[in-house]
Amino acid sequence: MSAKPFFNPVRLAGMMVLFIICSTVILLGQQPYSVAEHYNKHEYMIPMRDGVKLYTAVYTPKDTSKDYPILLNRTPYSSGPYGENMFSPFVGSQAEKFYRDGYIMVSQDVRGLYM
């Protein structure tokens, strides 16, 4: 009597193919999130106590029927793209959750960098 192998290579390959198909269907079923469709962008130059003005981009939900929490991000890596009609083409996986949940997103350049 022969023992069955612990891992059946055919079954393992079949499970891998099924996993890839399911993952692809889930990823293709998600619609890309458009910040421009759901948010208004405003730009401000906020003066500091010493007179230096810091570029600040504020993204507010177009739905104004309720109050929203605010998330402030100060970055040395640019708050661009600059221009009130220019929306960032990329929304990171973490940021996308905040946008979808309706947060007011504020991004500000730090002293001495970019705008």
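[next item in queue]
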Amino acid sequence: MRLLTTLLLVGVLSGGYAADTISGLQFADGKDRSAQDFRTQPAIMVYFSGQCPSARAWMGSRVKSVYLWLEKNHINATLILITPDVPASELMDLDSERDYHMVNALYAYDPANPLHVSLQNIYQVRLLEPDGSLQTLPYNDLFGAVQEHLAPDQTGSRTYPYRISNQGLSDPDVVDAWWAVERGRPDAVQDLVSAARGSPPGSQGRILLDRVTAFYQAQEANLCAAPATMETLESLEALLSEAKGITLKKAKGRYHDLTHDKALKDELQARDEYAQCDALLHSGKEQDRSDAKDGLGIIASRSPNTLYGRKAAARLQVLSGGTSAPSAN
């Protein structure tokens, strides 16, 4: 988890800086993300037609080979699988039904579809680098292109730093536990705590637990010293959720204080209203989706100086097709 930040509005897809190609996507796990969440690692953005048999086969072979390579070699990059055809609530069912089994990738529904993915344009791939640059990758040699861009060379210059060191870890079970925590998977920290607390001092499991505990305690210290903003509150929220199983009393206290801070009253109200609009956008009823757009407009105009007022404005622009994007290949 990383600090949630203000959404960027206008983007250019080229070799230069790319604005937010992530915001506006509806992720299967229900979390909001922006390009700023990928400041420390690349994101491989695979756009595919959920209706096309050829795209289905391509996902299950070439994209799956990339997924397995990332996981097996612990490459610090995120695979984002994006379609305009399947709502977010059904994407994990699609993963299972089609035997993709790429559950550690991020699935997302793209309501705006700026690349015009369809039965006539069945897949597109972009590589979003931590510096914000965006490159088009060839879909006919996706595995080779990803390896070329992300495989470490002899100097390790193309590697991206891990959040938590894996140095000295050789036990396969401990390495698996480290990778789950490193990727921020649900309940990974809690599972590690349960497994490692019964291990003897000096064992690899206990060494990993000590490293993980130190990492989250450092985050706790930083956030407890951070300004009283909505970004700090949400980062504490994310920290407490991800680090469940580790005692972080100061973070809990700071989070409680911020949720009752009168200065954040308007911020919290805008967030609640935004969540209601988000739920309506996921509805199968056209009227609900129309009401959601109206609601986003109200939040944006009434609360322009709040985090979710800005998010509402950005979301509305994406839904209205106002995001700048290239024509599809």
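[queue empty]
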